[in-house]
Amino acid sequence: MRPINGKRVVLGGIVAALIVNALEGVFGFLMRAEWEAALQSLGVSMKPGPAAFLPIVWSFVIGILTIWLYAAIRSRYGPGPKTAIRTALAVWCFSTVTFAFAIGSIGLFPARLVRLMTVWSLVEVMIATTVGAWIYREEDFPAIS
């Protein structure tokens, strides 16, 4: 078994995170009124504060860990999109579904918004993981000489 290629894990993870952030931006734009209403009911404004960048930074951590997981399980399931989808489903369950159950069970946000966020996240995680997995290789491309 070959070792995991850390450089390709990081590269694939960064690309995956960029995709998730772009799609999250689209979702936020499409659902802006609902997010504003939900946050306003909690007494929270949508004005970005100093910590507004933390979810973006965290998405890069999750993106890299996702592609690392793909690299780790591909020796068992084989490289390719089926393994990437398995990885995406695992990451989605560990992150989004867990979060959705937590905020949904206490009624923090409207159920419709939580459901839409959960479904949207599944799609974006599957796309991002598949692209990040496509970038991952066990060995680097040969240097041009």
Verbal overview:
The protein is mainly α. Helix content is 75%, strand content 0%. It has five helices and no strands. The protein has helices at 6-30, 32-41, 54-77, 81-105, 111-135. Helix 3 (54-77) crosses helix 4. The two termini are 29 Å apart.
Key attributes of the depicted protein:
145 residues; mainly alpha; 5 helices; elongated
Strand runs, count: 0
What's the rounded overall pLDDT mean? 91
Low-confidence stretches: none
Total helices: the number is 5
Main sheet: strands, sense, barrel: none
**What would you call the shape?**
elongated
Instruction: Briefly note the structural class of the backbone.
Output: mainly alpha
Strand content: under 5%
Order of helices and strands: HHHHH
- How helical, in percent, are the residues? over 70%
Distance between the termini: 29 Å
Rg computed from alpha carbons, rounded to a whole number of angstroms? 17 Å
